[in-house]
Amino acid sequence: MAHTLTVDFSRPIRLFPLAKCILLPHATVPLHIFEPRYRAMTRDALDTDGLIAMATFAGDGYREDYEGNPAIREHVCVGYLAHHERLPDGRYNILLQGVARARIQEEIEPHEDGYRRAVLRPTEEGVMEIDLESQRQQLEQMLGDEDLQQLACIRNVSNWLTPDLPTPVAVDLAWQAASRDHEQRYEILQEPCVFKRFARLARHLEQTRKTLALARRMGPCMSETGLPLN
After folding, report:
1. I need a surface site. Which of 34, 135, 144, 207 has the fewest CB within 10 A?
2. Distance between CA 224 and CA 162 in Å, rounded?
3. 75-86 and 51-56 as β-strands: parallel, antiparallel, unpaired?
4. Is this model's pTM higher than 0.70 or not?
5. pLDDT at residue 177 above 80?
6. Residue 122, SS3?
7. Domains in the chain and their CATH numbers?
8. Residue 191: partners with Cβ closer than 8 Å, 6 or more residues away
9. Helix, strand, or coil here: 98?
10. Tens digits of residue pLDDT in 45-71
11. Is 114 exposed, middle or buried (0-12, 13-18, 19+ CB in 10 A)?
């Protein structure tokens, strides 16, 4: 799951802002590209380094200036075009894989085809795997919990948790799978410290576990995704 691509942060990187789509490093998101400027962005990425930074709009004001350059939030995820399908009419279906946390340092003039670009700087704080031994053990225990295993997303992350998967990668994959909350995901994206991301994940999974345990005692009133059935 981890991607070893090295990002050249000395060069501007393409920006792809969306309203409510937060990509975390190491996770993937499928996207349908149909606007002319973003078709050009995809073509240029495929012809060069394959990099596109997923950004998110700041508030709802983007609706009034969508064709221009509405405000975006400063933290982004640099992604790599892991797969693409070009459709006959020029649209694309792509799979973007998160590579690195970054922050917009300076947005430059849009490309001549209309898509936005910015100079970014990486924000991830480096940490050695040996320093995450305790967090790794806790994560394995949590993901193996009987109640949490009711959720398909948790079972998937548990299956990905092989010995060669770094713990920071596992934490981000767990967040991408376990949370559908837009604001919560953005907070995780902007957090550079894996220890803090893990602590929040542990609290989130514990709360989810308590909810599922209660539901189990009450009977089959929740779906596999944790949604109420009545």
Report:
1. 207
2. 24
3. antiparallel
4. yes
5. yes
6. strand
7. 13-122 (2.30.130.40), 129-218 (no CATH)
8. 197, 200
9. strand
10. 999 999 999 999 987 766 676 677 888
11. middle
